[in-house]
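Much of our argument rests on the idea that a fold can be written as discrete symbols. The amino acid sequence and the backbone structure tokens for this protein are reproduced below:

___
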Amino acid sequence: MSAATFVEQARLNGCTTPITMITQEDFLPYDRTHLSKNPAATGREIELRDGEYYRDNQIDILTNTHVRTYSFGFCHMKLNEIDSVVRVPFRYATPLSAAH
């Protein structure tokens, strides 16, 4: 939820830079606190925002994706998307990770 809050606040404060969120989850950001109330709920049922919100605000979300390595010095990261490895350049990075 922290990454979702971060990007929402960035947009509310006028940040126009394209944003990409990377997650190992199968779903868009969702409210984990709702899982304690309804353990059978799926991520889709408790999403914080729908996909349209993220598209409209130029926020790309890569689901089912693992960051294998990243280099702030060389401004790139390697992603493992299922069986392929993708090298992704970036300008700015703010690593946020969800506590499990």
